[in-house]
Specification:
This protein is about 45% helix and about 10% strand. The protein is α/β, with parallel strands linked by helices.
Length: about 500
């Protein structure tokens, strides 16, 4: 840790924790900490006024960002430098949105046009009648497409898409039951095209097609991969392979060819709007400094609660059914990116890194977990996400009640309520932030996801870690392969479990 970084953390640690209600004694509080960003899909308000950040903390965090080299790391990422040092790779998901090295942006655009041609061909019937797609992937190859399709393709999708990630056969069989094999295509999404779970599911899907009378099963497969030669070797026709750059990480890949099922479900034009919304957030993140930079401001709050207040979790509640999968998406984005224990140089971090990300959908979660948020002993910073325009056509009281509940929860967490009866007392002074969209559409969804990507990156920079590798997911997979291959001895507990399950 540099002297400047250590000094910044010391300054932060010495500052008092203000009381949330007292902060609103400042008439300028709302204007200072709640900002509206105009985006292609409509304005989005980012309200961080109900967090404990104040002018002193904000200034100290800006010093930390400067000491940690935030501006330089941001510039290096956009320039395509190899900031993923452990894998010696650039980090170029923004190039998929038109922001980055010219060569990478040009390559991304060319690959997008290849994907568009295939999507248009399927929609026009050039490949026969296709009414269903079973998209098979795992991790970033599934979570992103599943989120976007669930959010954007609920009404009159151009293709019925089912995302399957779990190797549990029940998941794949559910997709089989929903699809007609005569009109179904299979998308196999794997960056390396070697992922065990994905390939196992893909082979079972091909077998399902064959058993149901499809003669040319491989002719029904679209491969989405950074290693097209492996897909061709596996049996996919090269004209049905949609590549993407190796410099695009799995959990950042829905902007690339991994987004094929999104484009197939909603049409390529809406997929382009999705990219445009993300690009608008990219431009804000690149062109704005200090507390005005909204992802950086959010990262300051994240670090305040994890580093200085001992919070071990962060919750996200989407008060919009269309965003019900967002907490699951953010779990991978944040915990796989920043769940690290060593810094860029391999030395111990020496402080907490990523909190546990969790959440749910309002108003369901209010009747399940909000008891702990209001009266429990854990400090849990909360993000609320909502849209002003409803996604339904029912009577307006549905949406008005939804938004009233969303806003009431943030107000109640902050204000609390005194009572002589301890069981009915609410301590208050509990933080929350609110992201309020004018409308949830392809562009605003793209901007929301990009906001969280940049927030995650900013957290990683100020912690001095590499947010772009994920070696921690490998050990368990290696042991699983050893079990399947046999001949390996494990601890007594594992051996007993294997024997009881009939695996060994």
């Amino acid at each position: 840790m540099s002297d400047a970084v250590a000094a910044a953390w010391s300054e932060l640690a010495a500052l008092p924790r203000p009381n949330l209600k007292s902060l609103f004694g400042d008439a300028g509080r709302l204007a200072a900490w709640s900002s509206k960003l105009e985006l292609p899909g409509g304005a989005v308000r980012f309200d961080w006024s109900k967090t404990h950040l104040d002018a002193a903390l904000g200034a100290a965090f800006v010093k930390l960002a400067e000491a940690a080299g935030f501006a330089q790391r941001r510039a290096a990422m956009i320039a395509g430098e190899h900031i993923n040092v452990s894998e010696d790779r650039p980090v170029e998901h923004t190039a998929q949105r038109g922001i980055g090295r010219d060569a990478s942006v040009d390559e991304a655009e060319a690959l997008h046009m290849r994907m568009k041609s295939l999507v248009d061909a399927i929609h026009s019937g050039a490949l026969g009648e296709i009414r269903h797609l079973i998209h098979i992937g795992i991790g970033g190859s599934a979570l992103g497409p599943a989120l976007a399709i669930d959010a954007l393709a609920r009404d009159n999708p151009k293709c019925d898409v089912h995302v399957v990630s779990n190797i549990d056969g029940c998941a794949l069989e559910a997709a089989f039951r929903a699809c007609d094999p005569a009109t179904t295509m299979i998308a196999v999404a794997s960056k390396t095209f070697t992922t065990t779970e994905t390939i196992t599911n893909a082979l079972s899907a091909l077998d399902w097609l064959k058993q149901n009378g499809v003669a040319d099963t491989y002719g029904r497969v679209i491969a989405l991969t950074a290693y097209p030669d492996k897909a061709v070797e596996w049996g996919v026709d090269e004209t049905r392979v949609l590549p993407f750059a190796e410099s695009v990480g799995g959990r950042y890949s829905l902007w690339s060819s991994i987004g094929f099922p999104i484009a197939l479900a909603v049409g390529y034009d809406k997929f382009a709007e999705f990219l445009d919304g993300a690009a608008a957030m990219d431009r804000h993140f690149i062109d704005t400094d200090g507390l005005d930079n909204l992802p950086l401001r959010a990262a300051f709050a994240d670090l305040y609660y994890t580093q200085l207040c001992g919070a071990q979790t962060r919750a996200c509640f989407a008060y919009d059914e269309r965003l019900r999968l967002l907490p699951s998406y953010l779990q991978q984005l944040e915990m796989e990116s920043n769940g690290k224990s060593v810094k860029l140089d391999g030395s111990p971090v020496g402080r907490p890194t990523a909190p546990i990300t969790w959440g749910g959908v309002g108003t369901d979660a209010q009747h399940a977990v909000f008891q702990l948020l209001h009266q429990g002993t854990n400090l849990v910073p909360v993000d609320f996400i909502a849209a002003i325009e409803p996604g339904d056509e029912l009577a307006s009281d549905h949406h008005h009640n939804l938004l009233a509940n969303c806003f009431a929860q943030g107000a109640a967490l902050m204000a609390g309520k005194e009572s002589k009866d301890g069981a009915r007392a609410y301590p208050g002074d509990r933080p929350s932030a609110t992201i309020l969209c004018e409308e949830l559409n392809a562009a605003t969804l793209g901007a929301l996801i990009a906001f969280h990507e940049h927030r995650t990156f900013a957290n990683g920079v100020m912690l001095g870690i590499n947010s772009f590798d994920q070696f921690g997911v490998e050990l368990g997979k290696e042991i699983a392969k050893a079990i399947v291959n046999g001949g390996t001895t494990f601890d007594a507990s594992t051996e007993a479990l294997l024997a009881e399950a009939g695996i060994k």
